[in-house]
Amino acid sequence: MQLLQTTDKDFSARFKTLVSDRREATVDVSGTVREILADVKVRGDAAVKDYTSRFDHYNPESLHLSASLIAEKAAQCPADVKAALELAAQRIAAFHQKQLPQDIGYTDTVGVKLGLNWVALSQVGIYVPGGRASYPSSLLMNALPAKIAGVERIVMTVPMPGGELNPVVLAAAQIAGVTEIYSIGGAQAIAALAYGTESIAPVDKIVGPGNAYVAEAKRQVFGTVGIDSIAGPSEILVVADSQNNPDWIAWDLLSQAEHDPSAQSILITDSETFAQQVIAAVEQILTTLPTKQVAAASWQNHAAVIIVSDLAQSIPLLNQLAPEHVELCVDNPQLLANQIKCAGSLFLGRHTPEAIGDYLGGPNHVLPTARSARFASGLSVYDFLKRITYLECNQQALQTIGEAAVTLAQAEGLPAHAGSVSVRLQ
Amino acid sequence: MQLLQTTDKDFSARFKTLVSDRREATVDVSGTVREILADVKVRGDAAVKDYTSRFDHYNPESLHLSASLIAEKAAQCPADVKAALELAAQRIAAFHQKQLPQDIGYTDTVGVKLGLNWVALSQVGIYVPGGRASYPSSLLMNALPAKIAGVERIVMTVPMPGGELNPVVLAAAQIAGVTEIYSIGGAQAIAALAYGTESIAPVDKIVGPGNAYVAEAKRQVFGTVGIDSIAGPSEILVVADSQNNPDWIAWDLLSQAEHDPSAQSILITDSETFAQQVIAAVEQILTTLPTKQVAAASWQNHAAVIIVSDLAQSIPLLNQLAPEHVELCVDNPQLLANQIKCAGSLFLGRHTPEAIGDYLGGPNHVLPTARSARFASGLSVYDFLKRITYLECNQQALQTIGEAAVTLAQAEGLPAHAGSVSVRLQ
User: What topology is assigned to B2-23+233-361 in CATH?
Assistant: First the structure.
């Protein structure tokens, strides 16, 4: 953890380092992934089964999970967890339904009809990691926007290391409306979704988090299918005045730190005393936190506490950092929120811990990381819709605007463009 | 050109080949591009100037084009071309203004405030190719959506081979509201926009077409900045009955063929006689077309004419091909249009040649190619906006929904997530 004060002489330099710090380990797995993709493209199911046997120590007869097996396993999900998933799904769905956009269509003053229709993607794949990182909440966050957009075929892949299946993930899949499940993972799952195999029809877009192999496989199949953004380590930036309970803020900072040793937690406050109280609370919580190994590594290596003389100073710093999550733990959070240009999602006031948004606030928890909030947004219904524009001239309308198109086509040296218009003019 | 009939025994196999045909030349320039990017990242302006001297044979003292030089050059744009550009800009702007989305914000039944605000990107770069492919229409199509979204800084790069500048491009830049212009191109321009140099501040997103080096440079800087999609060779699919003038349809097919030897023109018709008339008309036009070298290569190697027994059969074929441009040259185009799920943009009726949309119909001409219309859309105002979501619980609302979040956090094995919520509950 490093402590910075805006009044320090070297603040600018240290803050610049903090902004440009790339926390992601870059292991080059592109060669291995390229081989797996090529193999699945050629050998289909046989290749997928080979890799599943080799990497997951699992040899299913069929890659497809039957409805009865899904139902049997999902029934093992504890009742309180199932109820919580249902509440989460209902709240996430309600928020995403409000995103459904309106088509555009009108006839302009010269008689040209034009417009834009939103059309759902036909089929998408959702990658769900296996093991500990197999988060049912992520499944809801990825599948529900697709469902609400109107995607008819929602295919999920989830590896089953040693044949083990997480009942909570299957319960979430049922609640979210997943239509097919395959018990595969890794680059081979991405290949199967992108190219198709004998038993898995290809999809048009693949979303969902995964390890380095999955991320690289998504990069390589991009173009053949659409993909969501590649998620980096989690980030939280908390802006807090001294009126907060230091314990609450410490828990918030650790809630992201426990995700990944490369996660980053930053506190900006206008009180040095409060900053020291939060730091002490973090150290205290870390002594007993079951995830302390991960959380302490993140805290030690990547956390920062920045002391400003006025919280208004946090805004330009925040817009440069463009963090995934921002908490504004102040009395009038909207005053600061209105000035934020670069962030994934905002958590306003003293009673909105970021984790509430991870599960069931309503907005999506798949958010831009690594400063990509400068140009990117969280996952949404829009990511599962396409826009098809249209144009319709009648004879008179074409006469009115056609000559100008001919002029521009000629200026660009494209005579067949010009000809296709002029042949229709008198 | 190949002729297919749906009644042919081998139709399915041949159509499948047509769908999977990848027309793009894949020269691997990634190594060269990686070097250029790294060099510009380290040496800044000096590196950009070196590459500009080497590749463009141009040695400007300043990379920045002065307002007076822009004004002087733009004044050389012919009056009729300038008037056509202004009509185009006005029509494109009118259509894109209708895309500006509404923010979402509400308080739900348990008292949680939540919403989504659309925020313009702060700064974008627009790459404009030099030489013959330097299309002023593309500049309008890339810059106007950014301007309308509210992007404050719109930076254009355009190489000046031998110091030559296209007055029409500069006139278009003025009309579109470009705020800075630099006389550079190639991978070095993409590097300068992504990383910044002494004289060029970095941007957050880069859009616009370019050659293989530019496309690869955009791929490599993706993540540091956002990029638009990588455009492949142009495509047109014309669905036409026998009531059309074969000459008109021939011109339409050639309007895309003249772009690139790898471009693809496809006609689907229900009349073999009409098909033969169109083919004959294409051959006739090609004898005198100034761009015949390119257009004939595209026509010979990539065009297809598909004869169906009923035009309704064109829809499933079309949705599989997912073409960039679709013309529906029939009396009631809306009947077919309503069934189209995968296409970039539609041109409806007998009087809407695709080229009218290239210049001034209103919808964007930057469209998905290579079947990416299955999952991607044309350029729009949305591409220059971000969504920032927010969530605000008061104490009572958190009491209502908090316990379920704790349950899910515990089920996912994330105790600090659970703690950040439970510490705020009674």
Answer: Rossmann fold (3.40.50)
